Recover the amino acids of this structure.
């Protein structure tokens, strides 16, 4: 029997024989540009036509920044508890289990040490896929321990922020991480060890109010949302229309809160360039 049949309206393929295109082979950017998924990965997950920087996680950033994707993960088995027995639409303990199963991550940050362009570097990278990259006790503790590793071994520290803010299910435990991480960064500064903060889309809430804006050099990817409260909340609170591009990386740079914006494909080179400048190393 033929795989098609003719009807008065034209050639139709029986439903059971239709071949669907597998999901994930193509990506559509917010501006409507279509790009092949493999080409997108080769281009550092940046849409080549419009330069849109797709959200990526720690796996991809480690691949981009560590030489040959070789690194030692720090505190990789640390997981969150539920000290408040918090319940909203579901139990926090269940939400944690679901997030771990869905993302294959233990929490919203991964920390690691390896070489970048031949030089040692400690990186803490947040994952938005894990409960919106929210900052809980584990996030704060892992960042604090990564900073301790930097101090102990005299290694520069890079923080990659991507977060919706503090994790409401941990209440005050979450808010305490703002002070903890800021205090650790003060110790890092006292040890005269460089700290670069990379803000990616989005960097909001408690992360912006603490470690994300405390770098010796604060940098961002193009188009990233950076702010404390979201634009809608700010507009509703002030009752005023916001300037065009409000809270984009470009707006934040213009108003002096960033040092520079760099495309993702130049990220590794630029980070190492600034580390060399800070440490007064010969530029190679």
């Amino acid at each position: 029997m033929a795989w098609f049949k003719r009807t008065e309206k034209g050639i139709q393929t029986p439903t059971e024989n239709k071949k669907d295109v597998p999901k994930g082979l193509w990506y559509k950017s917010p501006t409507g540009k279509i790009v092949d998924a493999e080409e997108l990965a080769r281009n550092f997950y940046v849409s080549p036509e419009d330069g849109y920087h797709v959200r990526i996680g720690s796996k991809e950033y480690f691949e981009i920044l560590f030489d040959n994707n070789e690194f030692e993960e720090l505190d990789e088995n640390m997981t969150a508890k539920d000290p408040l027995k918090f319940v909203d639409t579901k139990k926090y303990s269940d939400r944690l289990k679901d997030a771990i199963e869905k993302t294959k991550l233990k929490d919203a940050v991964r920390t690691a040490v390896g070489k970048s362009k031949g030089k040692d570097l400690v990186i803490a990278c947040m994952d938005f896929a894990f409960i919106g990259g929210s900052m809980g006790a584990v996030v704060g503790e892992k960042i604090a321990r990564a900073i301790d590793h930097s101090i102990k071994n005299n290694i520069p520290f890079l923080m990659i922020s991507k977060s919706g803010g503090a994790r409401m299910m941990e209440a005050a435990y979450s808010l305490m991480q703002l002070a903890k991480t800021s205090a650790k960064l003060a110790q890092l500064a006292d040890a005269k060890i460089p700290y670069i903060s990379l803000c990616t889309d989005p960097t909001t809430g408690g992360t912006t109010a603490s470690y994300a804006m405390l770098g010796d050099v604060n940098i961002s990817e193009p188009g990233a949302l950076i702010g404390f409260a979201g634009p809608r909340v700010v507009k509703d609170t002030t009752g005023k229309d916001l300037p065009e591009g409000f809270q984009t990386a470009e707006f934040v740079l213009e108003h002096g809160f960033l040092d520079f914006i760099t495309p993702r494909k130049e990220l590794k080179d630029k980070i190492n360039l600034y580390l060399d400048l800070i440490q007064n190393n010969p530029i190679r």
Observations:
- The CA atoms of residues 62 and 131 lie 20 Å apart.
- The longest helix spans residues 171-190.
- The longest strand covers residues 195-203.
- The chain has two domains: 11-54, 55-279.
